Amino acid sequence: MPNMYRPISIFIFFLFNTGIALGQNWTDAEFKKANTAVNADYLTNEEKNVVLYMNLIRLDGEKFYYTFLEDYINNYNSKVRQYRNYNELKIARNNSYYLSLLKHVKGVKNLPMFYPDEKLTSLSRSHAIDLNRNNLESHDSSNGDKFSKRLAKDFPNKTMSENIDFGFSNSLDIVCHLLLDCGVPTLGHRFNLLDQKNKLNTVGVSIQPHPSYSWCAVIDYVSQPTFYTNNR
């Protein structure tokens, strides 16, 4: 089976233009509020859209569940229908991760937005390129540096976290795959996207090729003082 249909995600946590079709019932005002990366010229359009979709979840989690997530599941199931093990690959409506997600997104409304950061994106990009060059699937760098060391150089004494997704280059696919978090009992990716406790508000995003999975996406999160994000 081609690697593109074997996407995986990995998660770690430490303390210290868009071309998008309007979803049902989403307003222009909601899209405008969520599109915090619109002027981030250091991001590609797909990387900007990763930020947009993550923010739409935070604006109205249940509405995202019934609109964009449904689109993702329908498209994914359509793609994998050609394979003999379709019943294993498909995302069924009785999937435990699909069902638990509804419980988690109910009540998620008007959470603080994620804002992109150029320096943090540079760190995300460096790690994604490293994963590609050395065919890795790890939060650790090829030189052995831990995730905390890699980010803490530029963001010392901050709460931080990281999602890494493999197998997708499309922004909606990346975000929905992380949100469902199928096969990840801790649901770490999901809880990063829905974070309230740790006040994660600053993100770096990079989507790069990967030899084993076709694509990888690195998303780094940092908690910054609110005046920092509000004055972008």
TrEMBL record:
CDD domains: CAP_bacterial (cd05379). InterPro entries: CAP_dom, CAP_sf. Residues 109-216 form the SCP domain. It comes from Pedobacter ginsengiterrae. This is SCP domain-containing protein. Pfam families: CAP.
